[in-house]
Amino acid sequence: MTSAPLPDTAPAAGPASDNSAPASSGTVCRLALDGEAATLALARRLAPLLRPGDVIALRGDLGAGKSTFARAVIRALGVEGAIPSPTFTLIQSYDLAPGGALEAVHHADLYRLADPEEVIELGLDDLLAGGALLVEWPDRGVGFLPQAALTVSLETGSKDTARVAVLEGDEQWYDGRWSGLTQ
Ligand SMILES: Nc1ncnc2c1ncn2[C@@H]1O[C@H](COP(=O)(O)OP(=O)(O)O)[C@@H](O)[C@H]1O
Ligand SMILES: [Mg+2]
User: What phi and psi values does residue 180 have, to the nearest 5 degrees?
Assistant: First the structure.
């Protein structure tokens, strides 16, 4: 097993790091990721659980692994070819093969957003009608970004390649999806 729930699974006292508004509610789980493979495995567990309208907030410092995680989710959804960073374009969208739960997956990085209001120009309501959104630096769009269904905060671990993933999900994640993600 490449990731394991840590003994401390009590709800966090506050945001796990300071680059986002807190998640909407109550379900919190801390997972030890003992290397990049464990981060990729978590991403691959998340991918098939995604539903249209999901906003997945990815938090953590520069280099924490947010883009690595997002790319692995996108790849696991069947996207082939390049998955460029959305740092300058703000958002990259990928149409998915028909027949799956999602028509598309969108990857945003709001780090360079000058003003949270610029989120309006992304047209997220339309994108979320049939798709899911993975968003890095969600705090930069605070007030204009829909509430996250799930927040994944990547914190530093005990060695260079270790991370701790703090998962915070809203009520709908109880509904069958939480156990698929954390086990
Ligand atoms: N356990 C891990 N999870 C994710 N990335 C890791 C891990 N260990 C090492 N890394 C490395 O850390 C870097 C993370 O970069 P990136 O995903 O761009 O971070 P961010 O988007 O959070 O700024 C990558 O070079 C990746 O290979
Ligand atoms: Mg990044």
Answer: -65, -25
